[in-house]
Amino acid sequence: MKDVAAHNLEGKILSTGWKVLKKKAKTAASTGGNFSVCYDVEKDGKTCFMKAIDFTCHLANNFAGRSVVDLMTDMLGQFQYERDLSLYCQKNRVTKVAFVIESGEEMVIGFTYGIVPYLIFEMADGDVRTLLAYSAELDFAWKLKSLRDIAVGLRQLHGIGVAHQDLKPSNVLLFHNESKIGDLGRSMCPALNGPYDELEYSGDFTYAPPEVLYRFHISDWEQRTYLSDCYLLGSLVVFYATGVSMNALIMNHLPASLQPTYYRGSFEEVEIYLLNAYQKALIDIRNSIPFEAIKDRLVKLIEYLCYPTPTKRGHPKNISSVGSNYNLTRFVSELDYLRLKSELELLKY
């Protein structure tokens, strides 16, 4: 990496006035993408987070044998899309998403690969995956407040035609007493002709909903993507309660032959086994919720959001009435109620 400017920015002053402080070490839980180098940066006494794009990493992973021009075009397109999507969200008054606050392109002399496009974000206190790994004492009311913030953010994104598709613990960023959705880079937004709009699913397959893992196609774009986001939100609730994803719990109750890695049959044929495993997973989740007063309603919320059959996913009152079963308004209200209920339970101790 000695000849790649993106990896050698520490101590430099960018043309926009930002001083690059230190490179952030990559971990299994890191946000920021596979083709960027992350740094702390500072300007006017404010410390922020920077993603510097590493073209060489992208070129080195050219498994499809595509031309260098095509690869560079793709990468620049992804960079521009994440920048433009952040601006699009800001203009549409989305509040629960971590935004790009500045972007630019730096030419660093003395390197074969000296051009470095970059995005600068507000510095978060951390992400939920890391926080929960080190803080077993977090009260459940705090967790529900954080989940409510994320549900609001997801509802805001859906309201302006954006499907996040990569909602997971490491993409929940903490800012003082507020949680926000991070990393819009894998999102879909037809209004901006996003690079992933034609994909069935653009996020991390570790958290993908069953219809994706079992190759069940939903033709309507809005239904397909928003129902995926609902499942990811429900899985996030599960993670806050148990420390693992919904998929991990479901797979614990499925024989190996029916798991996506090995199974080659249809979704319809495996559906009954998925539903059985899912019901057992809900029992596991219930046993992990500390307050008896909220167990039934929180498990029911997870049940609605994570139902394995996508057409039956969502709040029953949404499914049976005019509107969409992926509307998140009822879930925002329910998380708010459960947060208040948990706070009252804490006062008893």
From TrEMBL:
User: Cellular component per GO?
Assistant: cytoplasm; nucleus
Query: Which keywords has UniProt assigned to this entry?
Result: ATP-binding, Kinase, Nucleotide-binding, Transferase
Q: Name one GO molecular function term.
A: protein kinase activity
Which Pfam family, any one, appears in the UniProt record? Pkinase
Tagged with keyword Kinase: yes
Give all residue intervals belonging to the Protein kinase domain. Answer: 24-332
PROSITE patterns membership: PROTEIN_KINASE_DOM, PROTEIN_KINASE_ST
Q: What does the similarity note say?
A: Belongs to the protein kinase superfamily. Ser/Thr protein kinase family. GCN2 subfamily.
This chain's protein is named: Protein kinase domain-containing protein
